[in-house]
From TrEMBL:
Entry annotated with the keyword Nucleotide-binding: no
Keywords: Iron, Iron-sulfur, Metal-binding, S-adenosyl-L-methionine
Organism listed in the record: Streptantibioticus silvisoli
Molecular function GO terms recorded: catalytic activity; iron-sulfur cluster binding; metal ion binding
Protein name stated in the entry: B12-binding domain-containing radical SAM protein
Amino acid sequence: MSNTIRALLEPCPPDTGELDRRLSGRRRRFGFVPGGAAHRFPVMAALVPVATSRGGEVAYPGDPMCLYAALTLTIQRSATAPDALLAREPSLDDVLPDWGHYPDDDYRRAEHGYRTTLIADNPTTDGHVFDPRVWDDPAREQFVAELIALRPRVVLLSAVSAGHRYALEMAALAKTHSPGCVVVIGGRHADETVRYQRASHTLDLSWSSTVAVIGDGRSERVIDFVVAGDGAPGLDLLLQAVSLVLPADAEECVDTAAVLDALPLVAGAQPDLTGAFTVVGILPDGYTAVPVQGRRLSSAELPSPYEAFSVRARFGIFTRADSSALGSRTAHMLTLDACPFKCTFCSESIQVSQRPTRFAVTETEHAAERLGQMMDWGAEAAFFDDPVFWGGNWRAINNFCRDFEALRAARGDERPFEWGAQLTVDVVLNRAKSDEVAEGLDRMARAGCSYIYIGIESMAQRVMAHVGKNLLRRNPETWVSKVREALDTIRSHGIRVGSSVLFGLDGENRETIQETIEEIGRLIDDKLLIMASPNILTYHPGTAITAQHGQDRLDYHSRKDNRPPFTYFEEAYPEVISKLLTEDDIWYIHEAAAKRWGSVRNSAAESLTEAGA
């Protein structure tokens, strides 16, 4: 196998001579003349689903906002490029992916729920995403119909680890029904399994990475490129390189090696090379990795992920707008991409994540303006998907709430709007900043926050001792008492609380499972929780607990239709869940939690209220 890592691409003077030669050659290849029209080639993006049936299981939609965010720059480049005449001198924008046009306000406000029309029939940027949410025969047939109708030159797949097996199947269908297309995969699975080590100039590949799976023959070579790291600048740069070498004949395959050679030329032509990411090209005899280290981007510099897409989700926890039995139309938002804490099980921990783009704590006004923009686009509620809202920085939380209140007051905006966010027990119980915490919770409530989600994980002291979450340990203060105090503090400010509970951590056995289910039940009895979500520990590449449990070979590539009791939990597949739990344990968790927690336990039906992103 010929596996290579090219030199790190950093901001540098462009090789204008070679680039000009390539651009001129492309004009001749396409028969362009000055004054002619630019060429746009069809492209499709797809959110790879995780679920395999339409009923009886908890639906985990993957990470739609990861895909939306990754598409922002390439869509902006295409959608804002002039459709008029070519410049006299050849340009990188002579050939562009065709993302369509931005949706207008009427479309944004009217469109909601699942996408039901063929991409080829919807010329908006919103119409260029295939988003089935479930991978079954009807979804497969629709995907094939999309491919045949559009004949995309590039297919972009975004997958979490649990959806990777279906991404490989979708890639194979793309290669069959749109011959010659380039298939690119990114998303959280790529971030978790492909890591460039700058200090040693080496590439770390997990056994479950797309590159390794294809390299050792567990899958056919149906993927051409993997993008890991900052998705938006990475994908934009890659598509510019594809455009530079694109054959004029729509049936002719794009040469992967030629794209890799074009990347340095395109990077050198960037007036401001941004982002930290790695592009891996998968070749017949191995792979070539191209690491890129540009200027770090903040979220404020990127377009809103919703600029090109409709707000489609409905979250049953939000009902003030009273627009649907499924709950208010809910936008998703991030203030940071990596959690600042180091829980052993979490794939969003700063130890695992390689997605550093985020709002700075000084950009709260911009974040408030973006939230106001989402309201104008039809959002009736919002949920901040950050592992910890503003990283647990109470000054930033206070400033954001103040800025959002001021924005609505200046606009005279009295529309019903509510939002929620995620915090941790220790962030709420920050004794050194108790006054700031109290002010922050008050301001959150006044600014419309009606719901806070907290990861409780376990109520067994012997389990929490190993997690790396219970940071502020004070004797004789127990985790159970801290959880109760944190929930009571939040409730005293008029904000409801929901929680996630995680089974299968170190120290777990049937006794600790019973202890956790009973203690959570007591919190429900005392009206401290309005929702409790039971989850099974799932091993993710790169997390500390995955290494500690010796799970270095995770099967995220074999095609499987899941089955009960695993389907009652997000992401749970038999081969990738905690080795400390038996199938009998999982049945027990499902049945005992349903009995003790009653309707407060999230159900499969409730999880399906989220119809989109």
